[in-house]
Write a structure and sequence with these properties.
Elements: E1 20-29, H1 35-45, H2 59-62, E2 67-71, E3 76-82, H3 91-98, E4 108-117, H4 120-123, H5 132-140, E5 147-150, H6 160-173, E6 177-179, H7 192-210, E7 215-219, H8 224-236, E8 241-245, H9 246-249, H10 251-263, E9 267-271, H11 276-279, E10 285-286, H12 288-298, E11 302-304, H13 316-327, E12 330-331, E13 343-344, E14 352-356, H14 364-371, E15 376-378, H15 381-384, H16 390-405, H17 410-414, H18 418-427
Parallel strand pairs: 4-10, 5-6, 5-15, 6-7, 7-8, 8-9, 9-11, 11-14, 14-15
Antiparallel strand pairs: 1-3, 1-4, 2-3, 12-13
Helix pairs in contact: 6-7, 6-16, 8-10, 12-13, 16-18
The protein binds 2-carboxyarabinitol-1,5-diphosphate (CAP) and magnesium ion (MG).
The site of magnesium ion (MG) has 4 residues, from loops.
């Protein structure tokens, strides 16, 4: 129509430059809208445009126009954006631009943002993880095997004293970290300060008995000022970690916490609760792969990315790519994958992948076959639910890891290791759902 100018944002065949932000979308236009019309709307609405021509458009604004440069009949659309459209160092503005209004346009029925190629200047506007995999391993003095964590289950409800007791057993049994569950923050039955006191006592006792470093993934998720207060409390106790439900807290809060965490020498464990509300559908929302890349920019040190054997749904190719893109310095998309971009990280520290959800000793070999051993493995019910209790549960997990690293089957190793045998008798190799 005469008053529209979306088509000016479509430049098929345009070759993007290295310093542009590139976004890949899967687009399903609404009835009556062509893919070209949808692509123009996406590029316009997420850059400088609006629904009608503007008499106020000056040359310096035109330079900021995004360009839809690839349109494929299956709905794959790629758009190039001048990097000046993005505020250096600000994840909230990234969301408001290429993850914003475009999801709600009437001309578009379904829209999934698959990947973003961040150019060097944008990547370098973020500090990234303050510790990374190497730094976290140094904190715990754990090398050559997965770092192990357990959530005391039930996920909420325990009193601070009960929690402290469970934490002691989990750590004395051999787990490196005790992790708060994602919905355990500071409730009437377990105030944060009381839990902190109980857990730190448990850590002290378990470290003395085992001679191993232990830590608490302290869930500080709350309003941002309160997160900072809890972070300082955790640091004052000498603990090395905090945990944030990054999508519940939001990236603005996370970026504030990241600054403070570095000042206090704390590593950040990112839980991804809420992600599946908008990552799970193949044709609408945002890929978790992209959320994990954004979390690396934001500076988390660990992030849950799913597993090949757990209770949460996962696409194995996507899981592998996610693990690669948060741990490598140069991610090269697989041959047959044209929805992901090459991504350089310019020396930004890697993020520790966390495998969690429905894990127990019987599935750990299959997990490590697929994800390797340079990961954090969280085993909640699979430790706390051991027939002989959490201490035996921690031992069973350590025994399963030892067996795997020695190339011995769990069944054979269980002949001489009672805790592993008891875990296998209860769960076998079942994959929970
Ligand atoms: C796992 C967990 C984690 C999930 C999150 C839970 O407990 O504590 O939050 O792993 O999923 O509450 O379910 P279990 P993801 O070990 O007892 O299953 O890791 O995919 O983000
Ligand atoms: Mg949980």
């Amino acid at each position: 129509m005469g008053f529209e100018w979306y088509d000016e944002f479509v430049r098929e065949g345009y070759t993007p430059s290295d310093d542009e932000v590139l976004v890949s979308f899967l687009v399903r236009p609404a009835q009556g809208t062509t893919l070209r019309g949808a692509a123009g709307r996406i590029a316009s609405e997420s850059s400088v445009g609006t629904w009608t021509t503007l008499s106020t458009l000056k040359p310096h604004v035109r330079k900021l126009m995004a360009k839809a440069y690839l349109l494929r009949e299956d709905g794959l659309v790629k758009v190039a954006y001048p990097v000046d459209l993005f505020e250096a160092g600000s994840i909230p503005q990234l969301f408001s631009s290429v993850l914003g209004n475009i999801f709600g346009m009437r001309a578009i029925d379904r829209l999934k943002v698959l990947d973003i190629r961040f150019p060097e200047s944008y990547v370098k506007s973020f500090k990234g993880p303050a510790h990374g995999i190497k730094g976290v391993r140094e904190k715990l003095k754990v090398y050559g095997r997965p770092v192990l964590a357990t959530v005391p289950k039930p996920k909420v409800g325990l009193t601070p004293e009960e929690y402290g007791e469970a934490a002691y057993e989990i750590l004395a049994g051999g787990m490196d970290l005790v992790k708060d569950d994602e919905n355990l923050t500071s409730m009437s039955f377990c105030k944060f300060e009381r839990r902190a006191e109980a857990v730190m006592k448990a850590i002290d006792k378990a470290e003395k008995e085992t001679g191993e470093r232990k830590g608490w993934l302290a869930n500080i998720t709350a309003e941002t000022n309160e997160m900072l207060r809890r972070l300082k409390l955790v640091a004052d106790y000498g603990n090395g970690f905090v945990m944030v439900d990054i999508l519940a807290a939001g990236f603005a809060g996370l970026q504030t916490v990241r600054e403070a965490a570095e000042d206090y020498g704390l590593a950040i464990h990112a839980h991804r609760a809420f992600h599946a509300a908008f990552t799970r559908l193949p044709d609408h929302g945002v890929s978790f792969y992209l959320i994990a890349k954004i979390a690396r920019l934001a500076g988390v040190d660990h992030i849950h990315i799913g597993t090949n054997v757990g209770k949460m749904e996962a696409d194995l190719m996507e899981l592998k790519a996610t693990q690669q893109v948060i741990t490598s310095d140069l991610f090269l998309p697989p041959e047959n994958n044209d929805t992901k971009f090459e991504q350089r990280w310019y020396g930004m520290r890697p993020v520790f992948p966390v495998a969690s959800g429905g894990l127990h000793p019987g599935v750990l070999p299959q997990l490590m076959d697929f994800m390797g051993t340079d990961i954090i493995i969280q085993v909640g019910g699979g430790v706390t639910g051991h027939p002989k209790g959490p201490l035996a549960g921690g031992k069973a997990v350590r025994q399963a890891i030892e067996a795997y690293l020695q190339g011995i089957s769990l069944e054979e190793y269980a002949e001489k290791h009672a805790e592993l045998r008891e875990a296998l008798e209860k769960w076998g190799e079942v994959r929970p759902r």
